[in-house]
Amino acid sequence: MNPPRDLHIPWRNLLRLIAFSAPLMLLAAGCSRPAGAPPKDSATGPSPGVPAHVSHGEHGGHGGHGVAGAQAPPSTLRVLTAPEQPAAGEAIGLSLEITDPAKTVVRRFEPLHEKLAHLIIVRDGLDEFAHLHPEVSEDGTLRTEHAFPKPGRYRLYVDYQPAGGVPSLAVGELTVAGDAPPAPTLVANTAAPIEEGGLRAKVEVDQGAAATSIRFRITDADDRPISTLQPYLGAMGHLVVIRAGSLDYVHAHPANEAKEAPDGIVAFEAHLPSAGLYKAWGQFRHNDRILTFPVVLEIAAGKEATGGHPH
User: Are 57 and 9 in contact (CB under 8 A)?
Assistant: First the structure.
């Protein structure tokens, strides 16, 4: 059984990478493109000041705990949009191209958690979240559509595995035109149940020296455990965690390879790179619906996990 991998990418390395390989974001301007014209390149990789840590609790069908793994810097995500100036509330065509740290465009992918690519989209204030699975064209371009609900800057993270390679992360961004409303202030809210789709999630956080355990207990409105959770993308749940401000990124998977949760409990282990506030989104499948439970975590100074290798 292969041990799971946990990758961390400190901001200093990311800034060095971007300084040599990725220009600042270019915001699309002007009129919509003519019919048949290629989509506008509205963002080329992350801008300086967009650090990213990626932590993969890889079960891969073998079980996993988010332990340390191979080091890898992030890839650059080139973001193209159609129409050329994204507007809030309208379906936007996204074309994404990944360039790895060796400045080679990634053309071939291997399945990672049952998909060739996982696209995570968040607004800077962490008040908007989406988890999409783009189609992969013959030339390696990732294509999908998404309606951005509000104006503002959005960060795009793609979890992928190149053919013959290891699980990797690509980071990019785009800006949706308009007056961006301020996001609500983040306040830790693990003390109260989170409601979604008629169900509730009680979240417990246990900070350890090697990892932070984040446990979701899913119940109905009467606090009875939901025993009929279904596997989602090969696991009993998925967890995305992003740090407020620095936007460090962690994608964790259940701490075991079980394909059922009769007590309604799914636990994750994540390496959170530093103290501070994090927003997390736990995703679970029930009655063939994907339920997303957002929660704000506060990691105390001196208790953040140190089990991963920095990058």
Answer: no
Distances (CA, A) of 169 to 49, 76, 125, 133, 263: 17, 9, 21, 14, 33
- Provide CATH code, domain 194-299: 2.60.40.1930
pLDDT per residue as tens digits for the range 17-66:
333 333 333 333 333 333 333 445 544 444 433 444 444 444 332 222 23
H-run or E-run covering 206: strand 199-207
Domain extents in the chain: 11-176, 194-299
pLDDT (0 to 100) of residue 74: 87
- pLDDT digit string (tens) for 59-74? 332 222 233 333 467 8
Q: Are 140 and 162 in contact (CB under 8 A)?
A: no
Instruction: Quickly name the fold that domain 11-176 has.
Output: Immunoglobulin-like (2.60.40)
Rounded to whole angstroms, the Cα distance separating 125 from 220 reads: 30
